[in-house]
Amino acid sequence: MIRPRHPATALLALVLVGAPASAQKPARASKSTGADAIRIPFEHYTLPNGLQVVLAESHATPTVAVDVWYHVGSKNELPGHTGFAHLFEHVMFTGSGNVPYGVHDKYTEGVGGSNNGSTHNDHTNYFETIPSNYLESALWLESDRMGYLLDALDTAKLNAQRDIVKNERRQGVDNRPYGRADEILEAAIYPATHPYSWPVIGSMADLSAASEKDVKDFFRTWYAPNDAALAIAGDFDPAKAKAWVARYFGGLPRGPAITRPIVPPVTLATAKRLVEEDRVQIPRLYLRWPTVGEKSADSDALELLASILSGPRTARLTKTLVYDRQSAASVAVFQFPREDVGELSIIITPRPGHPLRELELATDSILQRLRSEGPTAAEMQRAKAGAQLSFIAELESNLGKAEQLLNGLVLHGDAGWFRTDYRRHEAVTAADVKRVAEQYLGAGRAVLSVVPTGKKDLASEAK
Question: Are 219 and 189 contacting, i.e. CB atoms less than 8 angstroms apart?
Fold first, then answer.
């Protein structure tokens, strides 16, 4: 899947993938196009404790990115114990055994850089972008919280971060217009014990019930060198970087053997129709189908399908509903591929006087035509060009390169996966898009109407 993460303008002149940095020759001007023109120099090796390391040297700017991915997300939790992965995204910034609270910011933001983290269904990552001369400091900071976070974690710190996460949930989910839509749809699509059935942020009840022992046991299992990958991208000396990685990470002990959850594919035999009353002024329609994860080539075809349906003025749903009929204020379509399974969603906000049922029927008519006829050559060209530009644009930044390398390494076992990914995307045909529309966008879907409180009659009802 070609996935944009950091919008920017980019260059294609990056260097060959695959060989160790010491064996690579200087880049030469090339007329290569497509995947052959997308080149990032990198070296990949593994420490004895299992930590995977990727070095991507580039001296375009005097900055460097340090990015650490742990192959753990909300899917690694258990029913009744949700929200732990996201809770640690917060806890990891509260200080560790040798790094008092506030020092992490001092040696990143305090020197003109930045730091942050994010939690997903399948992984959690932490990253810094700093001036090149602060690379050793950044590696020390990351190694200390990987190896010694629990030395500084007590009940008071845990409770403080637990409260922050609860407030984040209140702000982003419970008290946000349409905020619970994703949770309702995921619960409708996946069985209750499925690893993708609960939200990344967790539930209030689970966050409240989590004990200090529960949380620390989760960290000991998943936040170990053998479940992590480190990328250094930008302006650095590879020999010095390797020495620092060995010094700060090499002595950390390997964690327990990892047993990853089994994630079965999901299908729905018929439509599930749901209504949610919310404190909103305007109703909204959600259609969601279970699809495939990013390891499947069908995900690339579904991504292009989403671009053909919404986005620019010429996209099918956008053109018909927003511009021609002016029955919708907005339309969004996206294929969300996780590591193992995925979902394709359509979100439509109506204009006054146009009921949700009208929009659902109009959408189904447009989908049926696409299933029957497939996309045009012009639609394929526009969709591919947009996706390719977003993909290339990400590679301008050091952090964007690090993210692409780690996405390939952690989720596909290959830091050079981005080239395979790009080629796979280029190979999608109009027939592939037509096929996935027929295969995945059928009757088995979740249909959610979010309506103002007390106005269930505004929901889209099957006739």
Answer: no
Contacts of 71 (CB under 8 A, 6+ apart): 122, 123, 222, 227, 228, 229, 258, 410
CB 441 within 8 A of CB 367: yes
CA distance 65 to 127: 7
Cα–Cα distances (Å) from 272 to 14, 185, 335, in that order, read 48, 9, 19
Cβ contact 333:346 at 8 Å:
yes
Q: What is the pLDDT of residues 346-396, one digit of tens each?
A: 999 999 999 999 999 999 999 999 999 999 999 999 999 999 898 888 888
DSSP SS3 for 227:
helix
Instruction: Write down the pLDDT at residue 187.
Output: 94
Phi-psi region of 343 (alpha: psi -120 to 50; beta: other; left: phi over 0): beta
Asked whether 364 and 372 are in contact (CB, 8 A), the reply is no
* Contact call for residues 350 and 282 (beta carbons, < 8 A): yes
CB 382 within 8 Å of CB 25: no
Above 70 in pLDDT, residue 9?
no
Find tokens 């949770």 and name the residue: 183
CA distances from 128 to 65, 70, 89, 93, 227 (A): 6, 15, 14, 12, 20
Q: How far apart, in whole angstroms, are the C-alpha atoms of residue 376 and residue 391?
A: 23
Res. 40 pLDDT band, cuts 50 70 90:
confident
Q: 3-state secondary structure string, 137-176?
A: HHHHHHHHHHHHHHHHCCHHHHHHHHHHHHHHHHHHHHCC
Q: Which long-range contacts (CB under 8 A, 24 or more apart) does 109-114 make?
A: 113/63
Residue count of the chain: 463
Nearest by Cα to 5 from 393, 426, 435, 358: 393
Q: How far is CA 139 from the centre of its chain?
A: 24
- 8-state DSSP, 442: S
The DSSP annotation for 177-205 comes to TTTTHHHHHHHHHS-TTSTTSS-TT--HH
Cβ–Cβ under 8 Å, residues 328 and 30: no
- Cα gap 361→264, rounded to integer Å: 31
Distance CA 420, CA 295 (A): 11
188: pLDDT strictly greater than 90: yes
CB environment 276-285: b (16+ within 10 A), e (fewer):
bebebeebbb
Q: What is the dihedral of CA 387, 5, 298, 425, to 10 degrees?
A: 40
Tell me which residue of 224, 422, 445 sits closest to 345, measured CA to CA: 445
pLDDT above 70 covers a percentage of the chain that reads 92
Average pLDDT value for residue range 343-347: 98
